[in-house]
Amino acid sequence: MSQSVVAKRYAQALFELAQTNGQTGAIQEDLLELKKVFQTNPELGQLLQSPRLKSAKKKELMADSFKGANQLILNTLFLMLDKKRIDEVVNLVNEFISYANDAAGIADAKVYSTRLLTVDESQAISTAFAKKIGKTALRIENIIDPSLLGGIRLQIGNIIYDSSVSAKLERLERDLIGS
């Protein structure tokens, strides 16, 4: 995740407001869309950082561009514009999601497999590994990796559980060569 102290502070403030107003889920969805916009249109970030454009015009542009967004998000964006921190929007979203996941007892996980996992398989993996890391559930992103040969590799943050056939073969090879 982000290492930005500024993004953490904005995210924490927005998260606390969202919790107070009972809008955490809706704000999280809006923020994910906002992140997509900023990532796919880097010109928008450059335009909003431009000293040629006045602050009032930037706010007007933001209000028009994100009409359907939650007012708390718009207010946060306006504040970030005023403080010249609009370049931290993507980091803010990442930090907000981290706070929301922690509060809900959810962790993001990447599962590498040779084929697409079924819903039941994903649920079983979520249930089994969530307990190991002290969470209630995992939000799984399934990534197809034919080099595994079979089995799965699970990554939760910087923890990796590897029960793939290729990893087992590599361990066996090391054991045989080391003997």
TrEMBL record:
Alphabetized, the UniProt keywords read: ATP synthesis, Cell membrane, CF(1), Hydrogen ion transport, Ion transport, Membrane, Transport
Query: How does this chain sit within the bilayer?
Result: Peripheral membrane protein
- Look up the domain of life of the source: Bacteria
Q: Gene3D superfamilies this protein is in?
A: N-terminal domain of the delta subunit of the F1F0-ATP synthase
Tell whether Hydrolase is among the UniProt keywords. no
Compartments annotated for it: namely: Cell membrane; Membrane
SUPFAM superfamilies, per this entry?
A: N-terminal domain of the delta subunit of the F1F0-ATP synthase
Asked whether the UniProt record includes Chloroplast among its keywords, one would answer: no
Q: Family assignment?
A: Belongs to the ATPase delta chain family.
NCBIfam families per the record?
ATP_synt_delta (TIGR01145), PRK05758.2-4 (NF004403)
Q: What does this protein do?
A: This protein is part of the stalk that links CF(0) to CF(1). It either transmits conformational changes from CF(0) to CF(1) or is implicated in proton conduction. F(1)F(0) ATP synthase produces ATP from ADP in the presence of a proton or sodium gradient. F-type ATPases consist of two structural domains, F(1) containing the extramembraneous catalytic core and F(0) containing the membrane proton channel, linked together by a central stalk and a peripheral stalk. During catalysis, ATP synthesis in the catalytic domain of F(1) is coupled via a rotary mechanism of the central stalk subunits to proton translocation.
> What is the official name of this protein in its record?
ATP synthase subunit delta
Q: Look up and give the organism this protein is from.
A: Sporosarcina psychrophila
